[in-house]
Specification:
17 strands; globular; 7-stranded antiparallel sheet; single chain; 5-stranded antiparallel sheet; about 35% strand; alpha+beta; about 260 residues
Length: about 260
């Protein structure tokens, strides 16, 4: 009888502990500052099954959004709230995407498989996407195109940071080339992780952060130098030069349904 009572007490205690842990996880702010390998990073985690992740390029009038504040104003007109945003891939001087860009299921720019100079062409490059099923992913460009995926949103950038659990083969450990960088990775459980390095960092260290600490088997570099973030809970909405594609996390108001 004593053993049964003890087992019941343990089960109740364990259940309460798990419930508390789940509640703590649910209430945990999605964005935090992480210090690793001597550098400081802004880390934002989102579950695409619970939060709405979208890509934005132009407003209804056809003008590029260019800045977080313009996107925020447009969303407020729709009864939606901008919870998070980040620049989402490389673009030309006219703000048009360098590579593949899909918004609301419409391909606005085809994939760029050309060779060339610069980070975008440091192959393999890749694609961050939200599928029609709502799941997110990061995949090498060639593999993405071969799979003929149907997606709601997609943006191509480069280089890949992590490929199947391996660091990009052309990255140089302890490279002196350091820049402020941002990227995205997707964990095996589907969690999307956006990262901004607040201080200059090498490609190799940035990739190892995604692989070794954030545990994303695939991760993609979005850009450097111009990299910035909109994270109100951290008191951040970085200004800067006009952007091209923007990735955002949206909350709809009850009246917008």
């Amino acid at each position: 009888m004593l053993r049964v009572l003890s087992a019941l007490i343990f089960a109740v205690w364990l259940g309460q502990g798990m419930a508390a842990a789940e509640e703590e996880a649910a209430n945990k702010a999605p964005c935090e500052i992480l210090t690793a390998t001597g550098e400081s990073f802004l880390i934002c985690r989102f579950d695409p099954r619970k939060e709405e992740i979208r890509l934005f390029l132009r407003d209804p009038g056809g003008r590029y959004f260019r800045h977080f504040r313009h996107l925020k104003i447009e969303l407020e007109k729709r009864g939606e709230t901008l919870l998070f945003a980040m620049n989402a891939g490389m673009y030309h001087s006219d703000r048009s995407p360098v590579g593949l860009y899909v918004e609301n299921g419409e391909r606005l720019k085809k994939a760029n498989t050309n060779d060339g100079y610069g980070n975008f062409h440091l192959k393999p490059n890749g694609v961050f996407f939200i599928g029609e099923d709502g799941r997110a992913g990061v995949q090498e460009t060639a593999a993405f195109l071969e799979a003929e995926r149907k997606v709601r949103f997609a943006t191509q950038s480069g280089p890949m940071l992590v490929i199947g659990g391996k660091i990009h083969p052309r990255f140089i450990p302890d490279s002196p080339s350091r820049k402020r960088r941002n990227g995205v990775g997707v964990r095996s459980d589907g969690t999307v992780i956006f990262v901004l390095s607040d201080r200059p960092v090498s490609f190799d260290r940035f990739g190892r952060l995604f692989r070794d600490i954030l545990k994303t088997p695939n991760a993609l570099y979005l850009d450097g130098t111009i990299s910035r973030i909109h994270a109100p809970e951290l008191g951040r909405s970085d200004p800067g030069i006009a952007m091209g594609p923007i990735v955002a996390v949206i909350r709809k108001s009850p009246t917008s349904e």
